[in-house]
Specification:
The chain is of the alpha/beta class and about 100 residues long. The chain is built from 5 helices and 3 strands; from the N terminus they run βαβαβααα. Helix 1 links the parallel strand 1 and strand 2.
Amino acid sequence: MIVAGFGFRRAATAGSLADALRAAQLAAGATAGALATVDRKASALAPMASRAGMGLIAVPEAELRRQVTATQSGASRGSYGTGSVAEAAALAAAGPGA
């Protein structure tokens, strides 16, 4: 299953999140089956997941910190203990071997 991971600022709009999903799916040439983000932000993605008929996976922060990410952001590292919330959420949600 393809999981689209999301990390975003509080000021992100529903439209900007939907645009990001569309752009990522076009670039990948594939459609995600689920969305994933850190558990404390999952409620912001719930309407989009519902409209798209996708599952939503809320990943606990402790699980994010266990993921090794190729992407590195100082802000993400400082706030969540991972190099990339989006990448870590997608990896955690996709499961072993992702």
